[in-house]
Specification:
single chain
């Protein structure tokens, strides 16, 4: 859908503008990586960004929150006809395996 793609592009540009004005705005940097991952599907790139932010701002919980989301996505096996949210809503359990 072109409207959705355009929305992602506008949002990414807005975060870019915010980060130009406030480069140490952790939450903006973290959310920008999240939006880009949703737009491109590149979770690995987002994870690398969040890890870099965590190193630069070790006391911030923002990158940690999204890094835990990555771990959850990778820990839950996704069956073809079910989405992760449906698996969780139906009481599916999974075992967390830290890296």
């Amino acid at each position: 859908m072109p409207e959705v793609q355009r929305g992602y592009e506008i949002t990414l540009k807005t975060f870019d503008q915010v980060l130009q004005l406030a480069p140490d705005d952790v939450w903006s940097a973290v959310y920008r990586a999240h939006i880009k991952a949703e737009y491109t599907g590149n979770l690995d790139e987002a994870e690398a960004t969040w890890k870099a932010i965590k190193l630069k701002h070790p006391d911030s919980l923002a990158p940690e929150f999204f890094l835990r989301q990555v771990e959850m996505r990778r820990a839950i096996p996704v069956k073809k006809k079910y989405r992760r949210a449906e698996l969780l809503a139906n009481g599916s359990s999974f075992t967390f395996q830290p890296n």
